[in-house]
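User: My advisor, Dr. K., asked me to get a structural model of this assembly before our group meeting. I'm new to this, so sorry if the format is off. These are the inputs:
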Amino acid sequence: MAIEFDAPKPVVNAQFVLKTVAEEMMRPNSRYFDEHEHEIPWDYIEFMHSAMKAMGGNSLAPREPSPSSPPPKDERHRDDGGKRPPIGYQLIVAQMEALSWGDVGLYHCLPGGGLGAAAVHAAGSPEQREKFLARFHGDKPTFAAMCITEAGAGSDNSAIRTRAVLDEKANEWVINGEKIFVTGGDKSFTEYEKLGRGFIVVWASIDPAAGRAGMRAFVVEGGTPGVRAVKLEHKMGIRVSDTAAISLVDARVPFENILGSPIVDQNPTGFKKAMATFDATRPLVAATGVGVARAAFEFLKERLAEREIHIRYGLPRQKLTSIERDVIDMEIMLKSAWLMVIKAVWMADNKKPNALEASMSKVRSGDICTKITQRVVEMLGPLGYSREFLAEKWMRDAKITDIYEGTGQINRLVVARQILGYSGAELR
Amino acid sequence: MYSFDPTEEQQMLIEAVNKYATNDLRPAARNAEESGELPRKIIAKGWDLGLLQASIPEMYGGFGERSAVTGALAVEEMAFGDLAGALAVTTPSLFATPILLMGSEEQKREYLPRIVEGEWSPYTAALIEYAFDFDPNDLKTTAALEDGRYSLNGEKAFVPFAKEAQALLVYANLDGQTQAFIVAKEAEGLSISEEREKLMGVNALPLYRVKLTNVKIPAANRLGGESGCAFEQLLASMQIANAAAAVGVANAAFEYSRDYAKEREAFGVKIAQKQAIAFMLAEMRTEIEAMRLLMWEAAWELDTGREDAVKDAYLASTGAADMAMMVTDRAVQILGGHGYIRDHPVEMWMRNGRGFATFTGLAIV
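Assistant: The format is fine. Below is the predicted structure of the whole assembly, which you can bring to the meeting.
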C-alpha cells in the first residue's frame, strides 16, 4: 500500500448524486421542519426510500453480503473480481457528510437501520443480522433506534437501571425500565401505516451485581406490548428528528433477541462487543458534524464573494485581514477533520482496530463544527443571527455533534485511555 | 483509493531515520543547542542515511526518485529527534531539490552529482527576509536582467551554513515574480554576516544574514534557465517540509510529556490519571493527527500533480505551525516547573515550536 488520498469512484459518485438530493429535497424543507417540530416529513421519507431503492442502495445500514441479500453497491460495481479493498464505511461517511450538508435533522429521518442496525451488525450473530437487518431492504421505509440513555445514566452507561429478567418457562426476556433521548425512537417503534415494522435496541442489565459485565442489548420489535413512546423532546436543533422517551413495562422479548451471550462471566466481552458499536459509529457521527460545518462555511464564503471579498490564500498571517484569517483557520479545521473521519473508517473497512482514531475523529468534529458554525453566525452579523437564513439553524444543529454518541469529554477519555494504555479503572 | 499505510520501502526508511533521530540527534540536541554547534560527525551520519541521494535519479548521481510524501515522512521522523539537527542534515536539499525539480538540464548535470556523490557539504538557499511582513511571493530582494546578466540586490536572513556554503540558491523578485538564482560563494557583491543570527531556538543551526549588492550572475544561473521556475511548486514543497517538521517536534513533545505524566505522582496517583492532564494529552494527540493528515494530503497532491497542492500545502503549514505551538506549550505545562528547567527538552521544543510560523524556507521535501 501507499499513502493515497484519491476518493474511490463510488464515493465521488455518491457525493455528486447526494449533493443534488440535498439541494432539492433537504434545503428547501430545512426551515419548515425546524419551525414545525414533530411533524413527520413523509414526502421526504418516501422519496428517499424509493430513491435509495432505485439506486440499489436500499439503506445506509451496514450489512453482510449473503445469498439472500445482494452485496453492497460498491462491491457489485467492482470490475476486478473483488480484489480491491473494501470501502463500505467510506461510502457511508461520504453519504452522511453530503446529506448532513443538506440538513442533518433530515438526515436522521433517512429511512434505514441507523444506530439500531449498527448495534445488531456489531454485536449480533450472523443469524441475528440476517433476521433483523433484512427488513431495511423491504417495500416500506423502515427505522430502527438505539436506547441506551436513562434519566440517571447518560455518559456513565454502567448506571443503567433497566432490567431484563429471563422467564425460563416462556423462554422470554422480561424488560422493565425507562429510556430517554432515543433518536428516531418514535418512527422505529410506533406502528405508522406508511412505515415497515422497525425495532429498538434496548440496553439492560441481566445481572446488576455484575456491573458492566451484566449489560446486554436486546432487539425489541416495534409495537411490542408494554412498550410505549411516552414523550417527544423539544430541542435546540435537529428538530425534525424525533427524540423519544420510551417506557418498558413487563415488555416480553424472545430469548434469541439478546445480542451477545446470555451468560454473565467476569470477563465482560459481551459489553465490550456492544461497545464496539461505537468504534464503528463515532466516525459516522463525526461525518455529520463535518457536513454541517461545511454547509455553514460555504454559505459564509458565498456571502463574502458577493461582497467581492476573496480569500488571499498564500499570504503570511501578518498580512491577512481578520476575516481571511478566520476563513483560513476554518478551512484547516474542516479539511483535517474530514481526513480524520476518512482515516478512521478506512481502518474499519480494512479491519484494523480503530478505537483511537474513531474517538479522535469525533473529538475533532465536535470541536470544529461547533466552532465553525458559531464563528459563521458571528461573522455574518445580523444575517447570521436572522432566521431568514440557515446559518443560525446550522449553529443550533451543530451543537448536538459534540454531545451525542459520546460527548466530547467522554471521547477525550477514550482517546486518553488509548494513548496512555490505561484501563477505565486507572483513568476514571 | 484512500490509503494511510506507507509503502514497505517508506516504512523501512521511517525506521532507519527514527533510529538515527532517537540514538544520535536526540542525545546530542541539548548540548548542540547550548553550544551552538552540532558535531559534524552526527551530521555526516544523517547524510549517510541517503535521504537526498534517494530522491535523485541515477543519471544525476543518486539512486532513486523524488517523492514529497517520502520526504515528508523522513523530515517528520528526523525533526522528532531534533529540529536543528534535522535542518542541518537536510540543508543541501535546499539547493539540490529545486534544481532537481526546476533546473535546466545543464544545471542538473553540473550540480546534482557533485552534491550527492560526496560527503555532506553545505549547499544552501536564501529565501527569508528580515521583515515582519515577509512574504515569499513578494520579495524585497530584486533581480534585474542587465546586458545578459542578472543583477541581484537585497538582504536575506536565516540562511543556513551561508558562511561555508559552496553555492547559494537566492530567491529574488524578478518583475513581480519570485525566481531563484544560483550564486557562487565567490560572487562579487555577496557578503555574509560575521555574526550568526541570534534566535529564540534552533541555536545549533548556523544561520546567517546575506547581503547582495549588485551581484552579477550569468543569465544561465537563473533556476530553470531562460524560462525560469514555477516557484509556487517549490514553495509548496517547503511548506510541506515545514509542516512535517512541526508534526515531528510536536510528536516529540507529546510523547515526552505523556511518558512524564505516567511517571510523575501527585496526590497518590500518576498525574496522567487526572483528567486535567489526560484531556490535554488527548487533545494534543488529536491535533497532531489532524495536521499530519493535512500535510500528507498536500504532499500526495504535489506528487500526483494536483492543482490543490499549492493551497493545501499553505493550509498544512499554517495549521501545523499553530498546532506545534499549542502542543509544545502544553508539554511544558504538563511538566510544570520541571518543564521550564533546561534539564528537560520540552522548553526547547516550545521555543522551536513557535518557529514554524517563520521557518518556511529552511527545509524542503
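One thing worth pointing out at the meeting: The first strand of chain A starts at residue 3 and ends at 5.

User: Perfect, thanks a lot.
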